[in-house]
Design a protein that fits this description.
This protein is an alpha/beta fold and 327 residues long. The chain has helices spanning 8-19, 41-51, 69-72, 78-87, 121-132, 154-161, 199-206, 242-252, 281-297, 315-326, and strands at residues 2-4, 24-26, 33-37, 60-62, 92-97, 112-116, 138-139, 166-169, 180-183, 190-193, 211-212, 236-240, 259-263, 273-276, 302-306. The longest helix is centred in the last third of the chain and has 17 residues, at 281-297. The protein binds threonylcarbamoyladenylate and magnesium ion.
Amino acid sequence: MVLDGQQDASITAAAQALRAGQLVGLPTETVYGLAADADNDQAVAQVYTTKGRPADHPLIVHVADASGIGHFARNVPAFAQALVQAFWPGPLTLILPRRPGHGAAAAGQQDSIGLRCPAHPVAQALLRACVAAGVHGVAAPSANRFGRVSPTTAAHVQDEFGDGLLVLDGGACAVGIESTIVDCTRGVPVLLRPGAITRAQIAAACGIAPLSKEELPAHTPRASGTLEAHYAPNAKVRLMDTKALQAGLDLLGSDAAHLAVYARTPLRAPQVLLRRMPQDAEAAAQELFAALRGFDDAGVRLVWIEWPPATPEWEGVRDRLQRAAAA
Ligand code: TXA
Ligand code: MG
């Protein structure tokens, strides 16, 4: 059932559902989440089974504001506090030392916890209503089945889980790809997942350039958003540079049924479903997952995608494309 997230009655109903241990489809500025009371282990367990997600892959816990951190985390380093100051509410998740006895199921039993304060007004309204109802945070992975493309509209969430789920409609997500994740448990910031907030912004806000997870000595906790093959549509995705893409299209001629092309460069491609990727990285991120779902809806079996530029503002989009192509 989809409810209008603008209505107070919808927010009240969703907060009550969460309080009662039910799941709710939640709009955020990045993607839609599948939310459960983070302190209710049974509700959290249901998130894992509904998604088909392995139980040792931790979920992100969403809080109404920075005052919600202390319930779930402790020993927050100064650089993490600077990031909270700079980017909350917004598309930034921090991995922090977990407060023992809190959010264990959501954290996949790890001694760290991922916290995020979403900026979307519907998410904000719901999280504040939750606090008033005694729910300190909601665990919410992206509202899609494990490994699939994340949803950026309420209709996408319904496509994934059917009409039995209560979904708050907050419109199309403005950012379109999942939050930037920074691990703050290793003494320096470590970028676990690129997103709308860039490395340069992180460095500027806290004074320390983030490391990449490849630069870490020890192994990082298991994390599905960081699996190589993820965010995949049904169609096979192949990433190509502009030249190879045009050469492939010229070779195919009219023999290109079930092929789609997603490219920023104008190409000669008479017979295929050709979709232009926005020139601007933010606009490309915003429509990316809807575009991938659109290819599936059109019955396409193969999508050739032109690599976007290897510049910092494209890091999040390139990351998601790479994972879609790895499936
Ligand atoms: O934008 C987003 O972050 C969206 C919206 C709904 O807020 N949520 C999201 O959640 O992408 P999810 O569950 O699909 O991604 C969770 C990822 C994990 O795959 C992992 O990479 C990281 O967050 N994560 C969460 N808790 C962690 C922890 N304790 N240690 C390490 N990584 C963690
Ligand atoms: Mg996900």
